[in-house]
Known about the structure:
Blueprint: H1 3-11, H2 14-24, E1 27-28, H3 29-44, H4 49-61, E2 65-71, E3 78-84, H5 86-110
Antiparallel strand pairs: 1-3, 2-3
Helix pairs in contact: 2-4, 2-5, 3-4
Amino acid sequence: MDGNYIRQFKKGSLELILLALIGKKERYGYELINELNAKGADVLGYAREGTVYPILYRLEACGLIEHSLVPAPANGGNRKSYSLTPDGARTLKELKKLWRAYSVCVDGFIGDTEDEE
């Protein structure tokens, strides 16, 4: 199967996953990337800055997340800590509901998993 098709398919769920992670607690970009890789690399592939940060910027531009500058203990500079906005919390709730219905719908079309290799 075409690798680009698979990458696009996986990338589509990253916005929901990032909103869900940020919705659990405020996080900074590097922390999000580490968690994606620790929990999802086997299925989603290895998360990279070039993939995650553009999504974070887009979510922020849409008003779903916001950032605050937090002192970085390692270098004395600042890092962005992301949190959900009220619109982001509402959107996350709607997306989670949609995801659950979507999963049930797709499972109904593809059937059971007995034919997997």
